[in-house]
Amino acid sequence: MEKLTYLTYEVRENVAILGLNRPEKRNAISDAFVEELALLVRRAEDEAKAGVIYGHGPHFCAGLDLAEHVKKTPFEGVHGSRRWHEVFGWIQKGKLPWFAALHGAVVGGGLELASSVHVRVADDTAFFALPEGQRGIFVGGGASVRSARLMGVARMTDMMLTGRSVDVNTAETWNIVQYVVDEGAALEKAVALAAQAATNAEISNYAVINALPRIQDMGADDGLFVESFIASFTATSPEAEERLNAFLNKKAGKVARPGG
Ligand code: 1HE
Questions:
Q1: Of 45, 62, 86, 136, which residue is least crowded by CB atoms under 10 Å?
Q2: Cα 166 to middle of ligand 1, angstroms
Q3: pTM (2 d.p.)
Q4: CB atoms < 10 A from the CB of 75, how many?
Q5: Per residue in 216-248, pLDDT tens?
Q6: Measured from the CB, is residue 97 less than 6 Å from ligand 1?
Q7: pLDDT of residue 1
Q8: What are the structural domain ranges in the chain?
Q9: pLDDT at 17 over 90
């Protein structure tokens, strides 16, 4: 593997673990950083069955590299934004379920990256903001689509207009994060959840991450129609037959009660 500059990468229990690794700049995302992320997302699809993204240093991610951005022409800015959309799209609608372990600042493009994964775990040091309004810019890494669908347009509008920063408990109430853990425990929890997801049938995971966001954007009648075909297609896979028979033959676990 060639030398990595902006991220760390390892695979454990079928889980690719990507660490944002530019702590001296609070993991601010430059063009070269995005390209390394792109490479590793693709590598993870070949080498793992689930992925986790976390941040080295005191914060998850401070968003767009403003020092680089300030030197760009408007058109370069458009291309940069479109590249983020492409790469974050590989995360959101690719082959793997992705999990994020969040701590410290999850702001601007950092929140956009976190919004592109499927499950977010945050420790109680995490805080969330969209400071683009204060910087004289707009979101460009997918927040108007992904973050707005998580928290709702009214809350995102408030964050952008007033510079509101929200703590982890508010973020959970707002559906920005799904799990809140003690300081320092987010990575371990995210890896455990990803390892669990990695044991699912690949076709089921693929349907969950690729079909659900699309169906959410359809009308109800169209969504139900598409759902019936995906349900039927996945159920006829050899893996489904094996798993269904394993349960019927009492060789697969029952659904556990919460906490059980
Ligand atoms: C940066 C960046 C950055 C830090 N680009 N260099 N994002 C923001 O507007 C967030 C800006 N950052 C902050 O508010 C703070 O840095 C933090 C709350 C995240 C962290 O504070 P702290 O006290 O831990 O660190 P620091 O001292 O502010 O920063 C350490 C260094 O990182 C410092 O550089 P140094 O050379 O003086 O040591 C900072 O300048 C640098 N740094 N954040 C470049 N973002 C595709 S569109 C997405 C649009 C956006 O993401 S806009 C939101 C951008």
A1: 136
A2: 17
A3: 0.97
A4: 8
A5: 999 999 999 999 999 999 998 899 999 999 999
A6: no
A7: 63
A8: 2-197, 202-248
A9: yes
Neighbours of 54 (CB within 10 A): 23
At the fourth CATH level, the homologous superfamily of domain 2-197 is 2-enoyl-CoA Hydratase; Chain A, domain 1 (3.90.226.10)
The CA 112 to ligand 1 mean position distance, Å, reads 15
Question: What does the buried/exposed string (b/e) look like for 11-21 if buried means 16 or more CB atoms within 10 Å of the residue's CB?
Answer: eeebbbbbbbb
Q: Could you please state the CATH topology (level 3) that the domain comprising 202-248 is classified under.
A: Lyase 2-enoyl-coa Hydratase; Chain  A, domain 2 (1.10.12)
| Ligand 1 center from residue 153 Cα (angstroms) | 25
Cβ atoms of 21 and 56 closer than 8 Å: yes
Mutating to test ligand 1, I would choose from 26, 76, 88 the residue with most ligand atoms within 8 A of its C-beta, which is: 26
Encoding tokens for residue 225? 């129609």
Amino acid at residue number 228: S
